[in-house]
Automatic annotation (TrEMBL):
This is Non-heme iron oxygenase ferredoxin subunit. Transmembrane segments: none annotated. Keywords: 2Fe-2S, Iron, Iron-sulfur, Metal-binding. SUPFAM superfamilies: ISP domain. Gene3D superfamilies: Rieske [2Fe-2S] iron-sulphur domain. Residues 5-102 form the Rieske domain. It comes from Lysobacter hankyongensis.
């Protein structure tokens, strides 16, 4: 399990914006959906392409992979359409000392 990784100051990630950090070997995408923060692995489960290059759909709460169009729910990581069927890993997010933090909490 990784230690908490600093993402950015709370005021730097506005609604609809995203940021990527690395927790050891894991790229983590943090997204602000209307004030709620969510973190998922920045890797499409279909073809392992970075999700962070895709567009966030704030209304749906999803992100689309630009490579083949797979979409994932940012709140729980589940795949919303083919060609992806497996969910992306979801990670905890916390706000502490004026910053946003996340970590890879998998064992």
């Amino acid at each position: 399990m990784s230690d908490w990784v600093f993402v950015c100051a709370t005021g730097q990630l506005l609604p609809g914006e995203k940021a990527v950090v690395w927790a050891d070997e894991t790229p983590i995408l943090v997204v602000n959906l209307d004030g709620e923060l969510y973190a998922v692995e920045d890797r499409c489960t279909h073809d392992e392409y970075e999700l962070s290059s895709g567009e966030v759909d704030v209304a749906e709460g999803s992100i689309a992979c630009i490579l083949h169009g797979a979409r994932f729910d940012l709140r729980d990581g589940r795949a919303l359409c083919a060609p992806a069927y497996d969910p992306v890993a979801k990670f905890p997010v916390k706000i502490e000392h004026g910053g946003i933090w996340t970590r890879d909490d998998r064992e």
